Amino acid sequence: MICPRCNTELKRTERTDRTCSSCQRPFALEPKENVLRLHDVRVHRLAGRLGAEGRHTYTVPQLWYAAARGRIPAVDHDYEGCLPVATGMLTVAVLITGAATDFGSDAFVIALLIALALLLLAVISVVTGRRKARRWGRVEVPMQLHDFRGTELVRWQQVYGALPAGCVDETRVTPAPVREPALALLCPDRAVLACLAANGVQERHRMALAARLDEVPRDVPVLVLHDAGADGLALFGAARAALGERAQGVGLLPRSVMHRDRAKAVLLRTRPLRDAELAAQIQALRTSPARLTEAEVAWAADGWWSPVAAVPPAKLLAAVDRAAGRAAERAAEAADPARREARQLGFLTWPEAA
User: Which keywords accompany this UniProt record (predicted)?
Assistant: First the structure.
């Protein structure tokens, strides 16, 4: 790794006790000791990208997802390499048996047959295990958020005295109440709401931020910001059922992430439902107001999802600003009969309409 203080490239033996042997100054993170392979220079780079070099504020979970991108294992990761290891062990066992006996003796033949039988069982076990993992296995960030927050970021603060540049603790950010809001945004992810609040979205659009449906103010347009996955789409469906056309989906859809490279997108998986529960979920997905394709329904029903908190803050803020602008235009049009009539007549498009 490279020393964040003096830019010296350090071998493992040259950075014991998290201290650079060249400049004798401490650093925070040792990549050999965390599953995300985090080191100080990488975190500084992530902070620069997430914060757009000081223009945006981001939260701890957003940093966590960014650090995990490209390091989330495949669904059958636990079975990778099992078969070669088993084959190698059985080969060693056969060689030891052959060394202890004559290669042509009955004892050796029996040992060889036993080894082949064990190898066959190993092959069957690995193939079966991989199939089960692909059908039912979970995919998660290999480091839990509480470990990232309570271990890696604590060490960071001990060395640097604060969180990475631009990062805020979402547990300490409370969206302020908005008097006479022009619209609202519903999102159950506290990190996303904190990011929006910290970046001035409420003031910019007179926007109330709500984590639950019962917190949404009355009689204003509602932007529903949700994850890509069954739970996020269920939230949008519930909001549309309760609020009607006031609820507008601005969240992630499966089509926007399901075909992306795993190194560039945060694709996670819960354990898929079974039997009657799965059938009910598939039906709900098919009738979702998001109008999903069958491929999207199958992807979400199989347990896959992607968190909206993993969207870089710049893209998230831009998407919310665009959606808020469209909502404001619709509200102004609804309040102005002349504008409604102009749209119905094709105002400024009448030559083409004719």
Answer: Membrane, Transmembrane, Transmembrane helix
The amino acid at 14: E
Amino acid (one-letter) located at 34: N
DSSP 94-146: HHHHHHHS-TTSHHHHHHHHHHHHHHHHHHHHHHHHHHHHHHH--B--SS-HH
Question: pLDDT tens digits, residue range 316-331?
Answer: 999 999 999 999 888 8
Q: Is the pLDDT of residue 344 over 50?
A: yes
Give pTM, 2 decimals: 0.82
Pair 43, 62: CB distance under 8 Å: no
Cα–Cα distance measured from residue 308 to residue 236, given in angstroms and rounded to the nearest whole number:
13
DSSP structural state of residue 269: E
Q: What share of the chain is helix, strand, coil (3-state, %, to 5)?
A: 55, 10, 35
Q: How far apart are the first and last CA of the chain?
A: 67
The helix (run of H) or strand (run of E) holding residue 63 is: helix 60-68
The tokens describing 278, both together, are 């799965």
CA distances from 108 to 91, 115, 132, 203, 205 (A): 13, 10, 36, 81, 80
C-alpha 237/C-alpha 76 separation (Å) is: 32
Element (H, E) at 222: strand 222-224
Alpha-carbon torsion (207, 208, 212, 213), positive or negative: negative
Tally of CB atoms within 10 A around 280 = 11
The full set of domain ranges for the chain reads: 77-136, 173-333
* C-alpha gyration radius of the chain: 27
Question: Predicted confidence band at 352 (pLDDT cuts at 50, 70, 90)?
Answer: very low
List, for residues 46-63, the tens digit of each pLDDT value: 999 999 989 999 999 999
pLDDT at 262: 80
